[in-house]
């Protein structure tokens, strides 16, 4: 009886095939060809049957009359699953090229220019469907692959996936509160040096853990912390420094790490907007004790949602993992038991001896894990980061070259000395005394389909959420307040072409020409 998975011989030419579907009087098959010394392409695979090896190309399916074949046997389930998986993935590839490839030319009268977004091809979609066919759902083989390859990319020992960049920051800071760190543990009432010109979830974990953010001002142009003020802001209560590389522009890591070393402070690099940036030739996120990344679509790569926490310190790695995975003390991956070989041999807290280590909790933690489907997208996105970085740098340079003679109107963005930024956006601040407001130019650009954004929260201490938060300001936040009132950005993400960048330059110049003297 012919069925799905039957190995058949075609009577006409004595070749072999595999039945994929039994139709009315007909069969859908894929042929098995004798193994040849040819590279295995995307939708080819080697099948072993009857002691021989055959090449199967799922892109070459055929429909044949049922009467023209004889049944030789049945292919094993594992090989048949591999063939069907390849068939499905080949259709996903076709679907991408048919429905996802954007071939619309830029039209200055119609095309909307986003500040950021997804840039992908068929490989991400194929991986996404491939992971869904496993139906593992939680972290699995793709998550392990991504964590390994992301750590290698960054040049760090450990990288742990989580469900967002904000969760990454929460995990990074919560890790510093662990009793396992002894006297260096951050406790409620301790101070953490940071900035108010940025994204709220760089600072929120400090507040959520009962510590006190100490806000320093930033430089206009680089938009990073005034590093020379850090040491004078240190007190006996200071335990850590937690700051972001603003818009992908690295802060002065040499100065920050020097102060941190002198006073034994922890350093968390919020690297969410800076993946691919370097300082003194070394990737940002790998200089401090802990680094964090976000994989939300406008960032330097995406999983849709997702983030990562990374470190070189094995103790910090274990604590991060514990906080991410419900606070448990056990480090066994999902589906594994007794990695420590003493699952029922621990005595921790006031638990009875031998209480199951899988249900022993050393931290008040969370479930901030990622799905394998997200990680599968990240595996392919990570391969594109060098290309994305080059595109961001090109777009930034093209904007800066096109606007460099407008410094009477704008403070133009400037890379930190000894850095090579992978820019998140092109940030502009109005010069004092110009005859237009930020809202004037933003409305003009938006009306011409050029999307704009602020430097996130502008000044966090002015935000409603921080009105009842306990914080300290060192000196003043004069520049941060100017950013609140006078700063905006336009996009440089890889989805923007040279033509689109030139249109943005044209519209900015067109607007300010009305105010030229």
Query: How many beta-strand runs?
Result: 20
What structural category do the secondary elements indicate?
alpha+beta
Low-confidence stretches: none
Principal-axes geometry comes out as: flat
Strand order of the largest sheet: 7-15-14-11-10-8-9-19
Question: Radius of gyration from the CA trace?
Answer: 28 Å
Query: If you average the pLDDT, what whole number results?
Result: 95
Percentage of residues in helical conformation:
25-40%
First-residue to last-residue Cα separation:
89 Å
Characterize the largest beta sheet: strand count, sense, and whether it forms a barrel.
8 strands, mixed
Describe the protein in words.
The protein has 517 residues and is an alpha+beta fold. The chain is built from 12 helices and 20 strands. Helix 1 runs antiparallel to helix 2, helix 3 runs parallel beside helix 9 and helix 4 runs parallel beside helix 5. The radius of gyration is 28 Å and the shape is flat.
């Amino acid at each position: 009886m012919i069925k799905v998975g039957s190995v058949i011989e075609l009577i006409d030419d004595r070749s072999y095939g595999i039945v994929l579907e039994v139709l009315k009087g007909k069969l859908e098959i894929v042929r098995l060809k004798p193994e040849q010394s040819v590279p295995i392409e995307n939708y080819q695979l080697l099948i072993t049957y009857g002691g021989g090896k055959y090449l199967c190309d799922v892109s070459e399916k055929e429909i044949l009359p049922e009467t023209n074949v004889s049944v030789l046997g049945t292919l094993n389930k594992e090989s048949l699953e591999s063939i069907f998986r390849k068939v499905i993935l080949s259709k996903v590839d076709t679907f991408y090229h048919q429905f996802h490839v954007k071939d619309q030319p830029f039209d200055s009268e119609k095309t909307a220019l986003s500040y950021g977004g997804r840039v992908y091809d068929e490989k991400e979609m194929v991986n996404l469907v491939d992971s869904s066919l496993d139906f593992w759902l939680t972290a699995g083989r793709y998550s392990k692959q991504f964590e390994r390859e992301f750590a290698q990319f960054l040049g760090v020992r450990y990288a742990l996936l989580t469900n967002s960049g904000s969760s990454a920051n929460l995990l990074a800071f919560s890790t510093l509160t662990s009793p396992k760190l002894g006297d260096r543990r951050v406790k409620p009432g301790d101070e953490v040096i940071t900035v108010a010109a940025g994204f709220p979830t760089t600072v929120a974990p400090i507040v959520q853990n009962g510590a006190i953010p100490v806000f320093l001002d930033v430089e206009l142009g680089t938009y990073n912390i005034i590093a020379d003020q850090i040491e004078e802001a240190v007190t006996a209560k200071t335990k850590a420094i937690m700051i972001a590389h603003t818009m992908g522009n690295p802060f002065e890591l040499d100065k920050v790490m020097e102060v941190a070393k002198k006073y034994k402070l922890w350093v968390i690099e919020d690297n969410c907007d800076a993946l691919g940036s370097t300082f003194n030739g070394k990737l940002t996120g790998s200089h401090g004790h802990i680094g964090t990344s976000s994989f939300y679509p406008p960032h330097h790569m995406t999983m849709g949602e997702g983030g990562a926490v990374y470190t070189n310190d094995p103790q910090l790695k274990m604590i991060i993992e514990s906080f991410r995975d419900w606070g448990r003390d056990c480090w066994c991956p999902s589906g594994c038991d007794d990695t420590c070989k003493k699952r029922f041999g621990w005595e921790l807290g006031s638990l009875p001896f031998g209480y199951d280590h899988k249900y022993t909790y050393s931290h008040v933690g969370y479930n901030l894990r990622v799905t394998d489907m997200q990680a599968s997208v990240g595996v392919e996105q990570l391969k594109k980061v060098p290309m994305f970085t080059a595109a961001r740098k090109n777009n930034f340079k093209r904007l800066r070259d096109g606007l460099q003679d407008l410094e009477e109107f704008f403070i133009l963005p400037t890379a930190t000395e000894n850095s090579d930024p992978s820019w998140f956006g092109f940030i502009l601040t109005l010069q004092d005394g110009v005859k237009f407001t930020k809202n004037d130019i933003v409305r003009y650009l938006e009306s011409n389909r050029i999307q704009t954004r602020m430097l996130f929260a502008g000044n966090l201490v002015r935000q409603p959420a921080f009105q009842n938060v306990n914080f300290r300001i060192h000196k003043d936040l004069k520049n941060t307040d100017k950013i609140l009132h006078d700063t905006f950005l336009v996009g440089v993400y890889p989805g923007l072409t040279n033509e689109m960048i030139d249109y943005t330059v044209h519209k900015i110049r067109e607007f300010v020409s009305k105010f030229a003297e």
